[in-house]
Design goal:
Helices cover about 40% and strands about 10% of the residues. With about 160 residues, it is an alpha/beta fold. Strands 2-1-3 form a three-stranded parallel sheet. Helix 1 links the parallel strand 1 and strand 2.
Length: about 160
Amino acid sequence: MTMEKSDKHKILFVCMGNICRSPSAEGVLLNKVKTESMDKAFIIDSCGTHGYHEGQGPDSRSIEVALDRGIDIRHQIARKIEIKDFEFFDLILPMDNNNLEFLINISDPIYHHKILLFLEFSQQSDYIEVPDPYYGGDNGFELVLDLLDGAAEGLLNHLVNN
């Protein structure tokens, strides 16, 4: 990742461990921009607030649910947020309030305007946060993908219209 200026939309998705929600969000948005032939206009990445799973791939259940929808996230590798991410990315989109608070606490206030809950972009859901499916059943992963899909659609509409 270079720190040079670009006219690309730079989006970073964040959850706690970077093996379920944020890599799925990265995959969903990347799939949408590729489908719309807009992938050259985006830099999309994901990370975790904690390094529990650094160097690992996404959870197998996240991979399976994504593949069922034609989204391949198998190549992703978990990483922990870095201070330079706050300068580089245009939008930093945590999945829940705990991760939002963590990001606000570790970042310089000049970057706080970039940090928004991802589901703020959804117009299809009453959910405020993307629930963590890690300790739940398989349908939790399906719900996560549904929520991420709606928010990704709203985010793209927001970026195209603003």
